[in-house]
Design a protein that fits this description.
345 residues; alpha/beta; 7-stranded parallel sheet; binds nicotinamide-adenine-dinucleotide
């Protein structure tokens, strides 16, 4: 297939691009190259004839339409977004512009393209979203695809809005859409403002490791390569009009996650004192969701998909990758906002 992947210079999008090219698909990577992007993430496929890059902002409707006309894709995998909750607290406007209006522009351009092509049944608009649209869980229960939406942050509200637009374009115009909502990702090429890279990089620098609140918030961690595999599975075998929750089946409290990373570092890069001595509890994020957990039944039962690594295995691979790729992360540490506490409101 010829895939138009938006946000392919970001963390998850680049994993999708690398895997899709490896699977033999043609890939057009559309990205505005914001602070969160890094073309190094796709350097391993950049020379392939089956790969093309379009520097384009999804807030620019005419530019998005032109990309569809130039490339005539068979499917869209839409990952471009503002993705950092803390930044959404400080500056929600950009999240509405990109995640809501940008998705609207993309839907309109995809729909016009699909109509021009004679409404092919095999066309897909695959929208990649988050489990954060469901809000926060208590100690029990899991999110299913039928859990009501109850987003709590400007980020998750903007993603929820975009999910609703995608659903409506499927119901109203017949555009063949599919939606996935996944849990927190981690792995290679994760931008150094997110929790897991912050822990690894602060530990290596001998700096305080900040943990929000008491570290009791629970996330269901998904290794990014597993997520990319799940997305390509849904794209090819998912049912039109359906949504799929993708989880790692790896729930952990933040504090336990941080201690696991410190223990792996103690083994791979030992210091005089254990890295966990750097842990420091800091002011919590306002509106911080307590727990997310995915019920994976639909992905398992209908598409026979499940994650390939445990949290321990995935974290080890991730720590090893950061130890081996210092040039990559050093270059990103100078970017605006990185290493600064954001989102205290
Ligand atoms: P990221 O921030 O690493 O990458 C986002 C990419 O989108 C960047 O390359 C950026 O340049 C691009 N982009 C931003 N605004 C754009 C615009 N206006 N036009 C074109 N490109 C633009 O994000 P990520 O972590 O890779 O997340 C990708 C998608 O997956 C997002 O839609 C996010 O909501 C969703 N998601 C992420 C997670 C996670 O744990 N990271 C979990 C669930 C869902």
């Amino acid at each position: 297939m010829k895939l138009l992947v938006t946000g392919g210079a970001g963390f998850i999008g680049s994993a999708v691009v690398r895997q899709a090219v490896a699977q033999g698909h043609e890939v057009v990577n559309l990205d505005a190259l914001t602070y969160a992007a890094c073309l190094e993430n796709v350097a391993s496929v950049a020379d392939q004839e089956t790969y093309a890059f379009e520097h384009c902002d999804i807030r620019d409707a005419a530019a998005v339409e032109a990309v569809f006309e130039r490339h005539a894709p068979d499917a869209v995998m839409h990952l471009a977004a503002e993705s950092h909750v803390d930044r959404s607290i400080d500056g929600p406007g950009l999240f509405i512009e990109t995640n809501v209006n940008g998705t609207f522009n993309l839907l309109q351009a995809a729909r016009a393209h699909w109509e021009r092509q004679g409404r092919p049944e095999g066309f897909r608009f695959h929208h990649i979203s988050t489990d954060e649209v469901y809000g926060s869980l208590g100690a029990e229960g899991q999110f299913t695809e039928d859990t009501p939406y109850a987003p709590n942050s400007p980020y998750s509200a903007s993603k929820a809005a975009s999910d609703h637009l995608v659903r409506a374009w499927g119901e109203t115009y017949g555009l063949p859409v599919v939606i996935t909502n996944c849990s927190n990702n981690y792995g290679p090429f994760h931008f150094p403002e997110k929790l897991i890279p912050v822990v690894i990089l602060n530990a290596l620098a001998g700096k305080e490791i900040p943990v929000y609140g008491k570290g009791e918030n629970v996330r269901d961690w998904l290794f990014v390569e597993d997520h990319a595999d799940a997305l390509l599975t849904v794209l090819q075998r998912g049912e039109v009009g359906r949504s799929y929750n993708i989880g790692g089946e790896n729930e952990a409290r933040n504090i336990d996650l941080v201690r696991m990373i410190c223990a792996i570092l103690d083994e791979l890069r030992p210091q005089e004192r254990p890295y966990s001595s750097l842990i420091s509890f800091v002011q919590d994020r306002p509106g911080h969701d307590m727990r997310y957990a995915i019920d994976p039944s639909r992905m398992r039962g209908e598409l026979n998909w499940r994650p390939s690594v445990t949290l321990e295995q995935g974290l080890r691979k991730t720590v090893e990758w950061y130890l081996e790729n210092e040039v990559w992360w050093r270059a990103l540490q100078d970017r605006e906002g990185v290493g600064v506490r954001l989102g205290k409101a």
